[in-house]
Specification:
Layout (H helix, E strand, L loop, with lengths): L5 H10 L34 E9 L4 H14 L8 E5 L1 H9 L8 E4 L7 H5 L8 E7 L3 E3 L4 H7 L4 E6 L14 H7 L1 H8 L7 E9 L2 H16 L20 H10 L5 E2 L8 E3 L5 E3 L6 E6 L2 H5 L6 H12 L7 E4 L3 E3 L6 H30 L3
Parallel strand pairs: 1-2, 1-4, 2-3, 6-8, 9-13
Antiparallel strand pairs: 4-7, 5-13, 6-7, 10-11, 11-12
Length: 378
Amino acid sequence: MGGPAIGQLVYSDCVRLSMVLRPVDDGRMNGAPGEGDDANHEYDGRDAVLPGEGYVFHTYGDERFLRSVVASVKSLRRYDRRRPVALYAPTEHLQTLRRMGLEAEFAVTRGLPDEHRSITGFKLHLERFQPFERNLYLDADMIWCRNPDPLWLQLSAYTFTATGMERADPFFGGPKGWSVLVDIFLDRRRKTMKRFGLKHLPRVQAGMIYTQDPALVSDVCARAREFLARRGETHFRSRLDEGRTEESCEWSLAMAMSSLQLPVYPWFQNYNSPQLDYITGLTRHDRDFTEVECRYYCDELVYSVRGVRTLAIRDRLFRIMSRLPGRGDHMDVTPFVLHFGWNHEKAVFVDFAERVWAQVADAAKAREREVADVESPL
């Protein structure tokens, strides 16, 4: 597979920052660290809103998460150099962006308060982080594979949505092992829905959330926070009990969207899929992910086998199930976004992000040498 190398993309972007077309800036939205009163500004929901559509990222913790954001934005800029990008991050991350000469990649950079440096702290408080009229909130562990114009057009029909499925399976928010059978036998899912007056429970994949109605965003998030606080009255499990470091926001968002009769944006749409998971053996790509194809089985049950981690068992199941009439039908799909949501697949994305960051660092050093040569001529 061909395509431009990461080094060429990153170097040309960094050494020509002055040529990057930046979106409208009202003078208050992009407070670089160390510049005036905005140096430690934390977004309070009262800043001016930029018109039109834009992408929103957030990051906190180790610097490697900032590197993931940068890598994702670099892949996005292959296909969309027009729509602005916002980043909410700790001061030290924003300072790193400035040091690396990357601040021009973001139309909005704002400090992220301590209380919002978690999955639920950010995604269940989106009403505080709406920099654009129409916002697309994204996880950092994503690589863009296509021009997103058609995606934005389709999302414009929604006031609030997140990628997902109409019906959540028993594993959604529940046990991930054989103990899920107990939940099924005791019908705990239905009891949760009845207790909260829900007629259906969708599955939300919160790596992609779209908003364009500030009042509705506030309502959704308030309800999701209330559902999360009442977890003990549901069948959902805390991710902290499973050894995770953070709580999930997805089942509470799903309950909120159900209670407000808000549809999810279909996760699986064959050739039009907004995002598909990176799965070893089912994803073909070149080194820089400029050409990507995912094997997409048309049958939902067959496609669910992709989650089996043991490749030999998984592939055998595919072969057996594909012998049934119509079950082996599949497509080679290039999604808008390739998502590295499975923990055991993240190493591939980390490698990509580190290569991008190395090229950014090399470009920054080259720029420093050029400045030094100009300031100290022979």
